[in-house]
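Q: Here's a chain of 265 amino acids. Please give me its 3D structure as tokens.
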Amino acid sequence: MTATATARATATPTDTQSHPREVPGGGKLSPVNHIVRIVVVRPPAGSTPAVHSGGPHQGQGLTEDDLKMGEQALKGVDATGLPITNTGKHVTMFDVLKPTDIVVIGSQPASVRVFNRDRKPGAHHAVDTPNSAALPGELPIKRLGPHDDRSGDTVLRVWTESDTIEYQCDVPFEIVEVNRAGWKMYDAPDNPFGVGKVKYTARERKSDTDEKPIWVWTSGLLPARANNQQYKMTFRIGGRFIDGELVGGELVDPDVVCGDPPPAP
């Protein structure tokens, strides 16, 4: 039985990771609302889903078989609303996901990562566009791997005092916890999102078309006091609402780093 992914194109985010805003304060000249897709991959019937590691690094419960299953599932999901490429290739969710998007397999986060021929991570580019780290004419290598805080390209980097983050998913979700991770910068806030107390519950956003609605949560501006601080958020993905409370689902914990400009990978 083939695995399935509950996912579709939600928005077409700009490749913000290569945006030329590197001068301190430059983020205010061109603020970005970072779109982060959360895509849920469901394992085949009879398989054992990855368990939550609970350790200091993410994704350690994922096996090579889990990742291969996830790739196959993502390649089977049509990225609705996105064009066919100039090679005539059918565009799938695997093609359009960025390393900072979140693929949920069981209770583990994973990412579609982009590598050059030497297996070094490179910047994400549009479908069929060579990686900037690749040789001329060399197509990038894309693989699904753990969304690990030791892999700098999977950690979302956000300019403070200018940017916001919008998380989108096809199933209900909420952010149930936010913690400073790794180093702890002096005076950095415990919660950088600036929109009240955790927990943050995504709201349903209905489409003007007959498409399935999505669930969305958007942060406030991240303050300058959060510069250079890494944060780990715990998401509850899926489940169902009972008396206004989201019950069940999986707990997943990706990372964010703040800065103006953000620290280098």
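Q: Can you summarize the key feature?
A: The CA atoms of residues 127 and 154 lie 18 Å apart.
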